[in-house]
């Protein structure tokens, strides 16, 4: 999709941030169904890894993007093709990959590494979040970012503005802080949900939505 590049690189100026940025944009279809774009922008802003999914699994996909970036650096690009064929696990479930290296004999590669107590790498895994559970701190990355970045007074004003269904425009210096706070604000409305336009990352070609 041609519009994806505008969301993966949502700026028209020189990128000054030196740290790796994790952020999420949202694509909404005509029926109101949201598809999440989980992104990892490297520190040189030359490459952005993006995964599109209907599942709002922020912690899972961010960790997977870090693992994918590490595998790409090491030249192990077969992992993504193998993961694409895996069915979605039911919560609490996990995914394990079996991959074959054509240049060597059968090798078991598994998704992200967990260090054991003796310093050796053990089999990595992903755990599907429980959709019945409520977000908590510090396990929920978005909610943690929100309470750190926004004080109580402003948080109450934002919450009241959402209840009154006002148009809200939020600025931030970092993409990860911006999108984390916006998704956390949406989660605070539970069991209600935001029914209007929701654009966590606003690229230059969509600035008309501000007016």
TrEMBL record:
PANTHER family assigned: DENN DOMAIN-CONTAINING, DENN DOMAIN-CONTAINING PROTEIN 1C
GO molecular function, one term: guanyl-nucleotide exchange factor activity
Pfam families (UniProt xref): DENN, uDENN
Domain of life: Eukaryota
Keywords for this protein: Guanine-nucleotide releasing factor
Protein name: DENN domain containing 1C
Domain UDENN intervals: 1-211
GO cellular component, one term: cytosol
Lineage of source species: Eukaryota, Metazoa, Chordata, Craniata, Vertebrata
Ion transport in keyword set: no
One GO biological process term: endocytic recycling
